[in-house]
Specification:
Blueprint (H helix, E strand, L loop, with lengths): L3 E11 L3 H8 L7 E4 L3 H6 L9 H4 L5 E9 L4 H15 L4 E9 L2 H4 L7 E3 L3 E5 L11 E5 L11 H13 L5 E5 L5 H8 L4 E6 L2 H13 L5 E5 L11 E7 L2 H11 L3 E13 L3 H10 L2 E9 L2 E8 L1
Parallel strand pairs: 6-7, 8-9, 8-11, 9-10, 11-12
Antiparallel strand pairs: 1-3, 1-4, 2-3, 5-6, 12-14, 13-14
Helix pairs in contact: 1-4, 6-7, 9-10
């Protein structure tokens, strides 16, 4: 049988940038391969590795860390690298990006066994395009193709956002998603009953993917467009706003977001690793917002706020 071609997208930066690398790369895939040898001596002393450790690991550079994802070679990798370049530039780091070509027999189909329907919140269920799923009467189905990446519903940040959306979306809600990726949050909001949804991303490829997912889900009240954060967003007041990005970009956005909010608007912030929560709290307070609630899962945090 002819082997399938795959590409490893590997980014390498200073070890202190590892959290930021993971935060950005996890927006493309939930399956990250992380190489960080900065604490190798401690692990040897603690007996973690015993006597079984390769010499190449002992000699590895302790000052850098790498994060990799894997995509099928028939995917346009330029889309992925452009997305990463924009995100890393926005948070002020400059990792080295490598494309490594691989062969893996039958990977194209075998990886699909790991993507199954996943429930997020009380009613929303994300179902891979190829899966048959018998829904319960109260469930809302969102169809996604994980092979497209840019957010599939499997990552904690998306699940946290969707959980909060269920609380705040009503039939009168006008919803805005800043940094929409695959469009999954706008699709969730639409299916939860929102009257209008607007989804924006800095990456034109992400917007294209979002439009395809909107079409595949049969919703017609979502408008997708290109915007660098808020610069291209349709002027107006929104009832619910989501920003599932990273802490540094959230902090950069907060001084300007209130012009799109009224006194009852709920702003849902996600993509925040627990270690950066305090920085986000400070920015929330400095920009005259108050926290309504926050939820955590596996080291990630989502926070909903209103104008004071």
């Amino acid at each position: 049988m002819e082997s399938t071609k795959w590409i490893q997208i590997k980014v390498t930066s200073k070890v202190e940038d590892l959290d930021e690398l993971c935060a950005v790369m996890s927006m493309l895939s939930n399956g990250l391969q992380i190489e960080d040898y900065s604490d190798i001596e401690d692990r040897i002393l603690d007996g973690v590795y015993g006597d079984l450790i390769d010499e190449s690991v002992l000699n590895a550079d302790r000052t850098v860390a790498s994060v990799s994802i894997y995509v099928a070679a028939d995917k346009p990798t330029d889309y992925y690298t452009m997305y990463l370049d924009e995100r890393f530039k926005a948070i002020g780091i400059e990792p080295k990006t490598e494309l490594i070509y691989l062969d893996e027999d039958d990977w194209a189909n075998s990886w699909k066994q790991y993507y199954k329907p996943i429930k997020i919140g009380e009613r929303l269920v994300v179902v891979p395009m190829w899966e048959k799923y018998e829904s319960e009467p109260d469930e809302i189905i969102v169809k996604m193709d994980p092979g497209m990446a840019f957010g599939t519903g499997t990552h904690e940040t998306t699940r946290l956002c969707a959980t909060l959306l269920e609380k705040y979306i009503t039939s009168k809600s006008v919803m805005l998603d800043v940094g929409c990726g695959s469009g999954i949050l706008a699709i969730c909001a639409s299916k939860l009953g929102a009257s209008e949804c607007y989804a924006y991303d800095i990456d034109p490829v992400a917007v294209k993917v979002a439009k395809e997912n909107v079409k595949d889900n049969g919703v017609c009240n979502i408008e997708c467009g290109v915007s660098d954060l808020l610069s291209g967003v349709k002027v107006g007041k929104y009832d619910v706003i989501t920003a599932n990005i990273v802490a540094d970009i959230i902090i950069r956005m907060l001084p300007d977001i209130s012009k799109f909010m009224h006194k009852d608007t709920v702003l849902v912030l996600s993509g925040i690793i627990d270690e950066r929560c305090e920085d986000v709290y400070v920015s929330i307070n400095e920009n005259n917002f108050e926290i309504i609630e926050e939820i955590h899962e596996n080291g990630w945090c989502a926070i909903s706020v209103k104008i004071k």
